[in-house]
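Recall the central idea of this unit: under ordinary conditions, the amino acid sequence of a chain determines the structure it adopts. In this exercise we apply that idea directly, starting from the sequence alone.
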Amino acid sequence: VQLVESGGGLVQAGGSLRLSCATSGLDLGGVSTTTWFRHVTGKAREGVACISKNLSGALYVDSVKGRFTFSTDSTKTTMYLAMNNLQPEDTAFHYCTATTTTRIRLKTWNWLYLYEIWGKGTQVTVSS
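Accordingly, the structure predicted from this sequence is:
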C-alpha cells in the first residue's frame, strides 16, 4: 500500500498549485478518513484538510479556509488538494495520509498517530 504525492513546487505569493496523491494497493472507498498534513522544520505537523466518513463535509484548518479545496476523483484512487492564493506561510512539506480508524472526530482529525498510511510528501514553497 502506497501514497505518492506530486504537484509541489515553487510559486509566487498569490499563485496556485494542485497537489495530487496517487494510491497504490489502496481503495480510498475502504478507508474512513483521508487527510493532508504539512510540516515546517522545527514546527509540529499541522492538519490542513480532511475528508472523513465520520464527519460531514471536508474540514480545513482556519488558515486555509476559502483558499484550499480537498477532493477525490471518481475512481477513488487519487486525492487532490487545490491551493489558491498561496502565501509564504503556506511553505511546507505536504503529506497525504489515510486511516481506517473510526476515531476521527472534530477534535481528533489532526491527531498524527491516528493515521496508518503516509506518503513521502512534496515540498511547496511560496515566495513573497
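The radius of gyration is 14 Å.
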